[in-house]
Amino acid sequence: MHNFRAAARVMEKKRRGAAGAPPDRGPQGFQTTPEDPRNPDPDRFYGFVFQDTDFSKWIEAAAYSLAQHPDPDLERTVDEAIDLVCAAQDDSGYLDTYYIINGMDRAFTNLRDHHELYCLGHLAEAAAAYYQATGKDRLLRAACRFADCVEERFGPSPEQRKGYPGHEIAEMALVRLYEVTGEDRYLALSKFFLDQRGTRPHYFDEEARKRAEVEGRPGRPDADPRRYVYHQAHLPVREQEEAVGHAVRAVYLYSGMADVARLTGDRELRAACERLWNSITREKLYITGGIGGTRHGEAFSYPFDLPNDTAYSETCAAIGLAFFARRMLELSPKAEYADVMEQALYNTVLAGMALDGKSFFYVNPLEVHPAACRADARLEHVDPVRQKWFGCACCPPNIARMVGSVAAYAYTENEDTLWTHLYMGSELTKKAGDTLLRLTMESAFPWEGRAKLTVRAETPAVCTLAFRIPGWSTASTITAPDGVRREDRDGYCYLTGTWHDGDAVSLEFPMTARVRTANRKVRENVGKAALTRGPITYCLEQADNGADLHLCRLDPVRISEAESVPAEIGGRPLVMLEVPGLREEAGDDSLYRDYAPAKRKAVTLRFIPYYAWANRGEGEMRVWVRI
Amino acid sequence: MHNFRAAARVMEKKRRGAAGAPPDRGPQGFQTTPEDPRNPDPDRFYGFVFQDTDFSKWIEAAAYSLAQHPDPDLERTVDEAIDLVCAAQDDSGYLDTYYIINGMDRAFTNLRDHHELYCLGHLAEAAAAYYQATGKDRLLRAACRFADCVEERFGPSPEQRKGYPGHEIAEMALVRLYEVTGEDRYLALSKFFLDQRGTRPHYFDEEARKRAEVEGRPGRPDADPRRYVYHQAHLPVREQEEAVGHAVRAVYLYSGMADVARLTGDRELRAACERLWNSITREKLYITGGIGGTRHGEAFSYPFDLPNDTAYSETCAAIGLAFFARRMLELSPKAEYADVMEQALYNTVLAGMALDGKSFFYVNPLEVHPAACRADARLEHVDPVRQKWFGCACCPPNIARMVGSVAAYAYTENEDTLWTHLYMGSELTKKAGDTLLRLTMESAFPWEGRAKLTVRAETPAVCTLAFRIPGWSTASTITAPDGVRREDRDGYCYLTGTWHDGDAVSLEFPMTARVRTANRKVRENVGKAALTRGPITYCLEQADNGADLHLCRLDPVRISEAESVPAEIGGRPLVMLEVPGLREEAGDDSLYRDYAPAKRKAVTLRFIPYYAWANRGEGEMRVWVRI
User: Fold this and answer.
1) CB-based contacts of A179, cutoff 8 Å, min separation 6
2) Is pLDDT above 70 for B29?
3) Do A526 and B626 touch (CB under 8 A)?
4) How distant is the Cα of A516 from the closest Cα of chain B, in angstroms?
5) Contacts of B529 in chain A (CB under 8 A)
6) CB–CB of B585/A511 below 8 Å?
7) What is the pTM of this model?
8) Is B568 marked active-site?
9) Cα(first)–Cα(last) distance of chain A, in Å?
10) Is A266 strand, coil or helix?
């Protein structure tokens, strides 16, 4: 908010012809002030270079809320915020407060680190969402003007720059802008950014060289080649085989690739998306639906390196994985995409927020020892309890916009088909010819695998309703009205026919506890198992099982005796799993001793849904348990 | 060598009254050049601020070699080196080339980081060793003059500074200087340094404040309190309970504390040594005798945190642990000290060097996957093969001086007793009254637990010969001449009586493979076991067992069937262990799947001594194996 106000002041002065010299700069760029002081200098920029995006994400989340729950007070607040954003926009269309405040002569000189195009992306997402929610286009026009400003400067013509975003999101946001406005140039710009990425010479080196020239410093290419990997700029995107680098950026990029592949029919790009999807889901996906095995670069680690305690598994990365999954579903409706989307949403994304919605995880490890988090520098990125906020607060508003728009993940459609991917209580409409079908989904998910879709229609209408058969279900019963044709394909049950008022489809996917093991290449999980039930991944928590969870074992002989037990945490109902287990005795105090079979006592291990952990104070947690 | 030459030029100019201005300085100190270029500037300092110590360590190692194998050529080379060192010494006695070259007005202004007193320590160790080996005192006098220069400036008088070394070693080196020269002031200075450490206000903050004043910068106390822990300066040493911080520095400090406790009879200091010893050996010691669980600060981690793959376990730290152990033995001859000393020397210290003596490990992990070392930033400190040298080359010359002086670890004595701690082929003498006993130790260690000590004496003599009964031996047979009285105490067999020419003591400690487990608090080793045999800790290597060592398991039913098999690696004989084991099949390609008992096939697991790993090319290794 502060930065937009400061930028609006700059703009006002500029329009009055009263713009002074920009503020003092450091030798390598501009000063930023990490924290908002109590008495901020009204003319100064505060926070991260990408601070604008928090504001955009808030507008976007508010838009989703307004779409479902109209609220004039909230809408007025958003309109005021939008006025402020528009007031900060330069006449050229440029709209990044960091440069507007600090000096626009350096705009677009550091795409690698300074996140202007990332700011454009979030602005476009917010603008499109608010337009779709309210029909108001003031922010949309501002976003288009900023996009036009970028599109003028970046592109294939000789006089245009050949850059691309350092932090991806503009790729998919420009597609959204294209879909809302119908302006082909936004799709073309997205495709341009995709195709420029990873080409040689590296644009990020070129711009660094130019900056150095301007500043009279020696310019060198980036000394660390991993830096390109970090940005997914190590190879042209069409040649990429493995999901690498910063995990959030990666899935944002892949989402944009999938969007462009869908809209342009680009088979090469689509094949790259499929390869990258496979790289993630076959080699780099936590059983919690999280991604990003290492905090070094907040990145994907090498294949099958899925450490539990040092995991990064950023909340935003799981959100981004859901973005990617939904776009893969749009490219090709296969249940495997929805399975992973569901896994990410119901586990890591939900874990990102406390049950009361008031505190957040940025990092989502699969094993936590609070004492170790405090004592061990290797775990300094791991919080054993959720935090109220973060200096870099990307995750909380990202959860808000995901939760607000979850319907778009539950359902996709084309002219004649509506796909149900996630089973959640909802009401929706589907145009079928001239008829509007009004559909009501009742669901007992995620605790019971029962769902029922009821059709209301003034006149009978022909269309296909497709229902995902979850990958975790070992049996399914789907009951459809007589005369509806059923075809199962790629994990979906397609029901095609004439739908009448009152028709219903009942779905039953029995949920039982499953004991899962990891691929043997995941070294850390050899000899361990994890429990899942339906879409939910479970964990042991100290609150239910005492400390020293590493001494708990599943009993391989009685492993099938898991019982589902209704319970409540933080006032929310959920299903716990009770499983016969063993607890090893701690033994004597010696550091090393001769082997003797461990003394064990039979215990009942109590598992709770992973997303619900750390809602009862600080304690140990682990997903993977010895067997 | 270069720096001593450059410093000698400075001194020569100074004596001629021709000293110019010191070279340009950076704002925070001096320029150092990390690597020696091909055409070095003869007037410039190169390398780390503590570069002098490499030279001192080389002289010390050469001295030990000369003591055992006289070599006029080597002695001449050392004498020339000593001439150079002496030529670099300032008239004040000051002798650290970093400040001599860069400007002595800043000497002793940054004890925390600039390692002058560390340089003094290594110089004193070298000087004492060379004096003891050759009787030549030129370097000893130089070291004393430097020590006197320090002693004049640091001490309890109001006008003296209250500092202490940032990197410990001066504490024990000054004791050695005291023992060689008989000058009480060196012992007093050592004790002063010990007692100053950890007092408030923190000296390192005070000196930082003064530096800031001089340089016109704002001075602030160290923002990170872990910084004090890193230097073992978080508490007065007498109050310390837990071994913390940089592991090498820690055990160097504790060694100095044990020295001073022994020579002054200081019971409080001794009690602190015992507590710190217990902290290491009961909670922080790898089964390889290594210490330092984390690369962050190259430091001890929290109790029972002994990760295998990310271990630091620096070679120098294991050497320092042997220093500490030997000094604890001198304080109080208990076999537990010698057990740990042996464990460190035969495993991590030996592992620090290739079997051909030509390459070195700095870091000694207990589990290595070469591909992970390359791909994972968390393992960037781990080399999967030994390196020819290091930028910071502390370890290789430290191994050289340890190997050269190992006799001092095998035996200690007082007037009437000679203790044998380590069984290695050796010849030595023991004064017993007026008689000189000539003793020959023949030993089959470390492969067989047989040793025999034969006495040569011109006239019979009374004394006590004490022999360690290794902690790893479950049975022992010690055969002594008739009439010698045997008493067992603290893990030593004391044989007291009159020794005649030709008397012999035979010792037999049967060595068998032992299967060891770690305390259950060592989370990483739950469900795993390690093999030892006598003093040797074993490991699995890919060369003998194929890749994917994490799929290998010991068979708990047949665990006692380990066979010792003579073998050879790199032309060196050793004993391998062959143990019935199981290898799990890798399974299908899916990342997660339903639990099914793993398919296993019976295999023979082949273990080699840990110290011999990575002598047959690059491959996986692990000490702790699933059971």
Assistant:
1) A128
2) no
3) yes
4) 4
5) 595
6) no
7) 0.93
8) no
9) 52
10) coil
Facing B519 at nearest CB: one of A281, A520, A591: A591
- Bridge partners of residue A411, in order along the sequence: A420
Residue-level pLDDT at A29: 47
pLDDT in tens, B369-415: 999 999 998 999 999 999 987 777 777 888 889 989 999 999 999 99
**What confidence tens digit (pLDDT) does each residue in B282-292 have?**
999 999 999 99
- How large is the angle between the packed helices A72-87 and A138-153, nearest 10 degrees? 30
Compute the distance between CA of residue B202 and CA of residue B219 in angstroms, rounded to an integer.
13
Q: Which of B559, B587, B593 sits opposite A595 (nearest CB)?
A: B559
Predicted pLDDT at B85: 94
What tokens were used for A44? 């100064």
Q: Long-range contact list for B225-228, CB < 8 A, 24+ apart?
A: B226/B297, B228/B198, B228/B202, B228/B204
Residues of chain A with pLDDT under 50: 25-29
| DSSP 8-state symbol, A598 | P
Orientation angle between helical segments A116-134 and A138-153, nearest 10 degrees: 150
Contact B439/B455 with Cβ under 8 angstroms? yes
Which member of B207, B242, B298, B342 is catalytic? Answer: B298
Q: Write out the catalytic residue numbers of A.
A: 298, 394
Alpha-carbon distance of A34 to A392, in angstroms, equals 10
In angstroms, the separation between the Cα of residue A8 and the nearest Cα of chain B is 36
pLDDT digits (tens, 9 = 90+) for A528-553: 999 999 999 999 999 999 999 999 99
Does the annotation mark B539 as catalytic? no
Disruptive mutation site among B592, B621, B623 for chain A (greatest number of A CBs within 10 Å)? B592
Instruction: Find, in chain B, the residue whose alpha carbon is nearest to that of A555.
Output: B597
Picking from A311, A360, A357, A321, the residue whose alpha carbon sits closest to that of residue A342 is A321
Rounded Cα gap, residues B134 and B122, in angstroms: 18
Average pLDDT score over residue span B244-273: 98
Alpha carbon distance A566, B550 (integer Å): 38
A53 φ, ψ (degrees, to nearest 5): -65, -30
The DSSP result for B40-70, as a single string, is --TTS-BS-TTTHHHHHHHHHHHHHHHHHS-
Q: What is the pLDDT of residue B22?
A: 57
Q: Which residue of A has its CA nearest to B378?
A: A296
pLDDT tens-place string over residues A132-154: 999 999 999 999 999 999 999 99
